[in-house]
Design goal:
The complex is a heterodimer.
Chain A (H helix, E strand, L loop, with lengths): L1 H5 L6 H35 L2 H49 L3 H6 L2 H8 L1 H34 L1 H48 L1 H6 L3 H26 L2 H25 L5 H43 L18 E8 L10 E8 L4 E6 L5 H6 L9 E6 L2 E2 L5 H7 E4 L10 H5 L8 H10 L26 H13 L5 E5 L7 H14 L4 E5 L3 H4 L4 E6 L2 E6 L1 H7 L1 H15 L1
Parallel strand pairs in A: 3-8, 3-9, 6-7, 7-8
Antiparallel strand pairs in A: 1-2, 1-4, 4-5, 9-10
Helix pairs in contact in A: 2-3, 2-6, 3-6, 5-7, 6-7, 6-11, 7-9, 7-10, 7-11, 10-11, 15-16, 19-20
Chain B lengths: L2 H22 L3 H33 L4 H50 L2 H5 L3 H43 L1 H48 L1 H6 L3 H53 L5 H23 L1 H18 L11 E7 L5 E3 L4 E7 L5 E5 L4 E8 L8 E8 L4 E6 L5 H8 L7 E6 L2 E2 L5 H6 L1 E4 L8 E2 H6 L7 H10 L3 H6 L7 E2 L8 H14 L4 E5 L7 H14 L4 E5 L3 H4 L4 E6 L2 E6 L1 H7 L2 H9 L4
Helix pairs in contact in B: 1-10, 2-3, 2-5, 3-5, 5-6, 5-9, 5-10, 6-8, 6-10, 8-9, 14-16, 19-20
Classes of the chains: A alpha/beta, B alpha/beta.
């Protein structure tokens, strides 16, 4: 696991090594200072040598300055390395998530994915930033101090041979208990976050049903569970401290007892004992540092494994490797079946066979839940077919590189999403290099030009979070313009004029027909009048093609189509 | 940096501390106990160290083994007390820290529920989420780590310093001066690093906001092949955070060695002067040695303290961002009229009761209470409204809906239809003019009660994690399973729900991802139906539902809403043609009003819309 992380230090290897070096040197200097001090007293004061004292004092100041320099350098290097590592890791994970297909996304819920991209990374990053110092300093101090004690009295040093393993065992048990607790804690936190997120997205619904109170109660319950689980985990974690003190104090008492006896029997000097005692603190302090790092690590290992879950998720939709481009926009469904989950019993789409010629206009009609959207989502490979094949220009969609395929297939989704930013920024999603003329062209076709001049700042109008500053119909028209700017070979409208008034919709349709003659256009709609002039109309029922044909033919003998037609006719005339 | 902002910084800090104190003070007693135990634990440590010298001098050197045993047992007792105290305060601290963080989180969530919509519209969700996650985490970390360390450092510092003065008061002046220097430096740099940490938390919020928006809008990102562009933007924000965080961390990290070397400097100075003192006979060698040991010990608490600096600074910035939300203005609500159930009493008068017809309860100035039955009469008087001042969306709208009427709004996109619904339930308040509900100005009705009396089905459907039944029950928590099924049938949702793997108990997650848009709308309608509202507003509620199903829903809803007021917003004329009155909106003004037949006969705008629709025949 650690090895996998080192990859993300790649650009910061020098910083990492530098910071390790600085900490180690700093620790060495810390041990030198008391030695100089001893010289001042033992040599300087005893010999009454003032110049020697001054000299050594200046040496100490020099040491202090060097260690200041080392410390400052460490702070800088560790910050760069730690934050750099975090940024790299976050970048890699974000890139991975961007490559996710929708079935990948469905494995993790959106809030959990967001936590994995934000909090989990922060935890790891903090571990690195706060961990370098103790993990280096601890062992350096311990080894040096242990060496000193062994030199002083190998007999007394045996006590450490017992104390250190005892402390290590305590720590091991604490850590073992902690690991599953941290896991539960992180899960509870996921739930807390998902409630907050859901609440924020659905705030309009919450407010109109006056649910603030019950939402708060729901939140408090989940928050309570989180508190309990984190309290339980941290209670174990802080046992570390009293355990450490217990061992440390016991060690001191043992040293006093055995040391006292050794002195009594004359096998040890008093000075050795006092010197020995001063190292006890250093050794055990170092152990404490190390144990704290382990505590931090055990918590961040949970985050790490959550991040690796994301990183290890096999990318389900992978583009073709050949440099193939969509040229004409002819689409063939060949016995296509589809379901969202492998395990699902029923197919969402079954045995779809359909030929759409390049440049044709196709209408798809059918009742609520007849899988119209599922059908068109297969074309730009938002999902992959479960069986059968889907071809564009005679080649399986899987042969096209994803970028080429999706550039060629424009799609206006049913659930329109605009992003915070100006109208211009949002439109440019379709084409980054779009000129003013192209923008105007797309806005004209999508009838955006009808309301654009009325907006306070025209193209520069800020849309706010998710486009809250424009109405539903305006949003849909912006989304159409955005898709047009791509100038795709195939353009799919997934019920994307549902909030646009009929006159405007007719206008958009006319302009599309006029301006995009060679583009294959697919309309999903509820209204027959939107598609009656289409080259082909597909009637879907429960995920199967009921019939496909022209308006006249369908009207003549397809009962479902006729029903819808009669119904809408009646709806408007009778 | 400009002069005025420098004056503001400490004030902000004080405000933030006050905010935190509000939570800490509820646990004063336990915090006091924690402080006490911390003092005991620190005291045991210091006392134990202090005992070392007499142990060696009085027992080890003379070889008094029984005495040694006695004193060791005594020391052991002191130490055990220290360990027990450590155990106690660390457990208590965890409990309190978690409790406080829980309280802050709850309060923040509650507060967010009261904020006006404009607040949410102006911020990305991720940015708000970041306050719940990162900012609160910083406070939790600081409480978990820093509080007891601060107390302990303080106690150890004061204790050692006292011993120093006892040992040699002249030399202690040097120590005191260098301490003052250290504290001055800590204070100075805490102000500086506060700015860094604020930047760090801010950029973290902005990055998280971006991540959240893009992960949620992943579908559009994919369709537009926008991954690379996004990645560039992401990298930019990521880098900004990296820079800010590196700055903050460097700054707080440098504190540690600076303070450490200041204490070395202090140590060297004491050693030098102390040595001269000793040479000139002002001090004996032993005292100098032990004095210097204590000087060295004073460095420890200061070091510990400065190591906590980054936790504390981050927590202060986090707390500041949270208190910013806590201080945001909630939705204004000066209404006093409430909604109650009433029954006709024996003497033929309306009386409040547990169940029964809805009525408005109007308190009068003299304390008496008036009850008026809820009828659903909604009127607009010269209503002017704009989301931005200077850009009115509605211009002098006058309209009325009598009880039992079905009123429809049609009009081209952006004509202000949804805005009308937003004003009735007071998501926004009118700029001028007024809206009355049963003759009462809506401003005088308590917002919650007003919204209870209305059910709104919005254009965008949001579903919550939970079962299908839970989602329908959202409209009425007391609904029985039968009522839920009935509402679902009315919304024509029953048949597709029955086909789902677990029927009504099917779990929805991730905003009902695998339901079609139309099915989601059916659930939203069922949710409104189960709430059995006096007034219903349908805002393009069936736009993704096929016309046939829509018709069935209409029949069902008409039955449910008999004698009640319904507002329908739609552009699909088939949806509105049966309305009692159709109001044609254009550019924020009412163009026409009348029934379908009247409007068609008038051959005006409605007729145009209508014939535009019917070009198929």
């Amino acid at each position: 696991m650690f090895q996998r992380f080192f990859v993300y230090f790649h650009n910061y290897r020098k910083h990492l090594i530098g910071s390790v070096f600085c900490v180690a040197m700093e620790a060495v200097f810390e041990l030198i200072v008391p030695l100089i001090m001893a010289q001042i007293i033992d040599v300087g004061v005893v010999n009454r040598d003032k110049s020697y004292i001054l000299q050594k004092s200046l040496l100490m100041v020099a040491c202090a300055l060097v260690s200041l320099l080392l410390g400052a350098l460490y702070a800088r290097l560790a910050a760069v390395a730690g934050q750099g590592f975090g940024a790299e890791l976050r970048k890699a994970e974000y890139r991975k998530v961007q490559g996710f297909s929708f079935s990948n996304m469905d494995h993790f819920s959106t809030p959990s994915l967001i936590t994995r991209l934000t909090s989990d990374i922060t935890i790891l990053q903090n571990t690195v930033c706060n961990g370098i110092r103790p993990i280096i300093r601890g062992p350096v101090m311990m080894v040096m101090a242990l060496a000193m004690t062994v030199i002083m009295s190998p007999k007394l040093a045996v006590i450490f041979l017992i104390a250190i393993p005892v402390l290590a065992i305590c720590l091991f048990f604490i850590l073992r208990m902690l690991r599953p607790m941290y896991g539960r804690m992180q899960k509870a936190l996921d739930r807390v976050n998902s409630i907050v997120q859901e609440n924020l997205t659905a705030i309009r619904t919450v407010k109109s049903y006056v649910k603030g109170q019950s939402e708060s109660e729901k939140f408090e319950e989940v928050n309570g569970v989180f508190r309990e689980s984190s309290e339980r985990a941290f209670r174990y974690a802080v046992l570390n401290m009293p355990c450490f003190q217990l061992v440390m104090y016991a060690t001191i008492l043992c040293i006093l007892w055995f040391g006292g006896n050794f002195i009594h029997t004359g096998t040890m000097q008093v000075g050795t004992l006092t010197g020995f005692l001063s190292y006890v603190l250093q050794i055990l302090n170092a152990l404490m540092m190390i144990s704290n790092v382990f505590l931090m690590l055990s918590r961040s290992m949970i985050s790490a494994s959550r991040i690796f879950e994301v990183m290890d998720e096999p990318q389900e939709i992978v583009g073709g490797t050949q440099e193939r481009m969509v040229q004409r926009g002819q689409i063939d469904f060949d016995h296509v079946c589809f379901k969202y989950q492998e395990a699902a019993k029923e197919d969402v789409l079954s045995d779809i066979c359909l030929h759409i010629g390049a440049g044709q206009t196709v209408g798809i009609i059918g009742g609520t839940g007849s899988a119209k959207s599922s059908l068109v989502q297969l074309i730009p490979r938002l999902y992959d077919v479960t069986s059968g094949s889907l071809k564009i220009d005679g080649h399986d969609v899987k042969e096209y590189p994803i970028a080429h395929l999706r550039d060629a297939v424009g799609m206006v989704l049913q659930k329109n999403t605009l992003f915070s930013g100006t109208i211009r920024e949002n439109l440019k999603w379709g084409n980054v290099d779009a000129t003013e003329e192209e923008l105007n062209w797309a806005c004209h076709i999508a009838c955006v030009d009808e309301f654009l001049p009325r907006l306070p700042d025209g193209y520069e109008t800020d849309l706010g979070q998710g486009g809250v500053n424009v109405s539903g119909g305006q949003k849909q028209r912006l989304c159409i313009a955005r898709a047009l700017l791509k100038r795709p070979r195939v353009l799919i409208f997934d019920d994307s004029t549902s909030a646009v008034d009929t006159a405007t919709e007719a206008k958009i349709r006319e302009r599309l027909a006029e301006n995009l003659k060679d583009t294959t256009k697919i309309f999903i709609t509820q209204r027959i009048n939107s598609i009656e002039h289409a080259d082909l109309i597909v009637v879907l029922k429960d995920g199967k093609i009921n019939e496909a044909g022209k308006h006249g033919e369908l009207l003549a003998h397809n009962p479902i189509y006729r029903d819808i037609y009669e119904f809408q006719r009646k709806g408007t005339t009778a | 940096m400009a002069q005025p902002t420098r004056h503001e910084k400490p004030k902000d800090l004080r405000k933030t501390l006050r905010f935190l104190w509000r939570y800490l003070k509820n646990h004063r007693a336990i915090l006091f106990l924690i402080s006490f135990l911390t003092v005991v634990s620190a005291g045991a440590n210091v006392y134990g160290t202090y005992l070392l010298k007499p142990v060696v001098n009085n027992y080890v050197l003379p070889g008094n083994i029984p005495g040694l045993v006695r004193i060791l047992v005594f020391m052991g007792t002191v130490y055990l007390a220290g360990v027990a105290a450590s155990y106690g305060y660390s457990q208590l601290m965890v409990k309190i820290a978690q409790k406080i963080v829980q309280e802050i989180r709850n309060d923040l969530f509650r507060k967010v529920q009261t904020l006006p919509l404009a607040f949410f519209d102006a911020r990305t969700h991720g940015e708000l989420m970041s306050r719940f996650t990162n900012d609160i985490d910083t406070i939790a970390d600081a409480l978990n780590n820093s509080f007891t360390v601060l107390i302990q450092s303080f106690i150890t510092l004061v204790g050692t310093f006292l011993v120093l003065i006892l040992l040699n008061s002249e030399l202690s002046v040097i120590v005191l001066i260098s301490f003052l220097g250290m504290f001055w430096f800590l204070r100075y740099s805490s102000k500086k690093s506060h700015a860094y940490f604020s930047r760090q938390q801010k950029f973290m919020g902005s990055l998280n906001g971006f991540i959240e928006e893009m992960v949620e809008g992943q579908k559009v990102v994919k369709v537009f092949n926008h991954e690379e562009m996004n990645f560039t933007e992401f990298s930019e924000r990521n880098q900004k955070l990296q820079e800010a965080a590196t700055g903050a961390l460097t700054y707080s990290g440098i504190l540690v060695p600076v303070v450490a070397s200041l204490s070395y400097f202090n140590y060297a100075l004491c050693a030098c002067i102390g040595a001269f003192f000793t040479i000139s006979g002002g001090m004996d060698l032993g005292s100098l040695a032990s004095y210097l040991v204590y000087v060295r010990q004073t460095a420890m608490p200061v070091n510990h303290f400065s190591q906590q600096m980054n936790f504390i600074m981050a927590a202060l910035s986090g707390a500041e961002r949270i208190s910013e939300i806590m201080e945001s203005m909630p939705e204004t609500d000066s209404g006093t009229v409430t909604l109650v159930h009433t029954a006709i009493s024996a003497d033929d008068r309306l009386q409040e009761s547990e169940k029964g017809e809805w009525a408005w309860r109007k308190p009068n100035a003299d304390g008496s209470v008036e009850l008026a039955p809820l009828r659903g009469d909604v009127r607009f008087h010269d209503v002017v409204f704009g989301y931005d001042p200077g850009h009115p969306v509605l211009k002098k709208i006058n309209l009325y809906a009598k009880p039992g009427q079905k009123i429809a709004f049609v009009g081209s996109t952006g004509a202000g239809k949804t805005t009308i619904a937003n004003l009735i339930n007071r998501f926004y308040d009118v700029t001028s003019g007024n809206i009355t509900y049963d003759g009462i100005n809506v401003r005088d009705i308590k917002k919650d009660d007003l919204r209870h009396s209305l059910a709104v089905v919005l254009q965008d459907t949001h579903l919550f994690t939970g079962t299908i039944a839970d989602n329908i029950r959202y409209g009425n928590p007391n609904a029985t399973m039968d009522q839920i099924v009935e509402a679902a049938k009315l919304a024509n949702a029953d048949s597709f729900i029955q086909r789902l793997p677990d029927g009504y108990d099917t779990m929805l997650s991730g905003d009902g991802a695998n339901l079609s848009q139309g099915q989601r709308q059916l659930l939203a309608i069922a949710r409104a139906a189960v709430s059995d509202p006096p007034v219903l507003i349908l805002d393009e509620a069936t736009s993704s539902v096929d016309a046939h199903t829509e018709k069935l829903i209409e029949t069902g809803m008409d039955h449910l809403m008999e004698n009640r007021t319904v507002f329908v917003i739609a552009h699909r004329l088939s949806t509105v043609r049966n309305a009692k009155a159709i109001i044609v909106l254009e550019n924020g003004t009412i163009l026409e009003r009348g029934s379908h037949d009247e409007l068609v006969a008038r051959k005006g705008r409605y007729y145009q819309l209508y014939t535009g629709q019917f070009e198929l025949s």
